[in-house]
Amino acid sequence: MKLSAFAAALLLATPSAALAQRAPATASASTIDAAVRLADWQLGQMHGGTVSRATGETKKPRAWEQAVFWVGMTALADAGGPPRIRKAILDMGAANEWLPGEKPYFADDHVITQSYLWAARNGAGEVARGPAQRTFDRVINAPAVTSLAFFIPPAGYGSAECLRRWCWCDALFMAPPAFVEMALQTGDARYREFALREFWATTDFLFDPVEHLYYRDSRFFERRDGKGRKEFWSRGNGWVFGGMARTIPLLAKGSADRVRMEGLFLEMAGRIKALQKPDGYWAPSLLAPEDSPPETSGTAFYTYGLAWGINSGLLLRAEYEPVVRRGWAALQRAIQPDGRLGYVQQVSDRPEKVEPGDTQYYGVGAFLLAATQIAALDRPTR
Length: 382
Prior knowledge:
- By secondary structure, the protein is mainly α.
- It has a single domain (5-378), classed as Glycosyltransferase.
- Helices cover 52% and strands 1% of the residues.
- The chain is built from 14 helices and 2 strands.
- The protein has helices spanning 5-11, 27-43, 64-78, 83-95, 112-124, 126-141, 171-174, 176-186, 189-206, 234-247, 256-275, 296-311, 317-333, 361-378, and strands at 207-208, 213-214.
- Strands 1-2 form a two-stranded antiparallel ribbon.
- The longest helix is centred in the last third of the chain and has 20 residues, at 256-275.
- The termini are far apart.
- Residues 1-20 form the signal peptide.
- It comes from Sphingomonas naasensis.
């Protein structure tokens, strides 16, 4: 398969060329090395040929599947990844002309802007922020008016009216960090106010206060498995948990919204801890662990979020570090002989089967996020 010019250029940045740039072999450096190796593997596979279940968005460089990988790359760059990680992010943004995805109101098409806003702070300047700001201005100046109830019309999933708002839990990773970061970079609080208003509307609608978990969307309110258990999708809740870990640090300490979100994070963390399987993974259907396969995308988001919670002082290290270590060990075991991250559930909206060779950009992005927080956990305290 012929690579794009951008992907071909990325292949020139081989792992061997960067070995001399790596940190000494401490536990922290070893974790970052593992992340860099996986990032190298993915940079060489941006053509999408390794994705088991390609969608219409898999090869689109501005769509969410690839965009989540780039979010992980920004974290890796910040955590001490070699300079070529930063360069790859800047090159990607320039190749995309810093444009968001195609649909201005669709949260999945906003996630790529998280990497652009990082780039705006890391050398690219205003040019990296401008297109995202214009899209966000359209959204906040004329907010969508629709119910959060999820109904799929005859025209298909993508035509669901509620997708113009954040009516599926994944959206809470995709959009809020970008809107809040835009407020910080521009000084315009309206972006943050919009994001938090929508975040709480979605939470009030989809969060189950009994199970302390999110339904993927309203179609799952009444769904039960053969044993009468509610269906809570691992990656769906991982999106929310990881999204809070990215949003909370951007909110003013002591602000009402930050305090409320930290409380929600703690509530979810306790439930997530209790649902980890003995092998370190979380089941694709969180309440149905029996005979469940390894699954790395949800596991990576939980490992990331819990490690971040410890590092931020929200979670007790003695209580949560064993959970994080089991999750990280499980993620490392999922690396396949060819270098890919395996056992990534493919694009879906519910729990499904997973195979060892299944990989995806967003799973790699979640692994990179987890690795950066594990590395932070491993640094000696002063």
